[in-house]
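Whether sequence alone determines local backbone shape is best considered at the level of individual chains. For completeness, the protein is quoted in full, as a sequence line and a line of structure tokens:
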Amino acid sequence: NMFTPLFYPLFATLPVLFLTNENHDYMAFELVRTRRYKSTVINKCLKYSLLSGVIMMVGYWIFISIGALLKLKSPEYDCGMLMDFIPNLMNEKPIVGGLVHGITVYFLFGFIFGLFAAGVAINTRKSYLTILVPHIYYLLVGNILSAFYNTTNNYLLQQLSPWHPVTITGQSYAAWYTTYYSLIPILIISLLLIAWRLKNESKVSSQ
């Protein structure tokens, strides 16, 4: 379904909602109780990011397994980073191809967006922002870059779109490493959000 990729950030960010509650309950207590607050925050963010990545990966594996059992063929199977190394793998061995694709694309997509959501979660008391902010970024930046791509035909704009790793058209026309271009800005934003929280807590704890 062409609309399904629009909801991918939702799947990746939902698990991080639990971190919003921990942020202002457990971790606030941790700040007083231990000097290892920074490592606690980082470990929590990584834990929920990994969970988001696993959920995206397993969801894709289920999807691709159903398609393999029904012997469905999709244009997506013939494109993307796998074609650079093993042409037609997704059609000839869809289970193996799906496992690799799930790890190299969907796990990383879920992990990065989970980290983005975690960065938001530790900086707000409003749970809905944990889901809303990454999703707005996904839709807004994706639409803006798509509009510029349609007028310029510059493939770099398409590759920088957050839609790029998980859409059929985004995986076409490009070398495998371009799959990750769009995840780099999100990773940087996520790390800045985490660093901002840790910096502010350091000021509080030193007073």
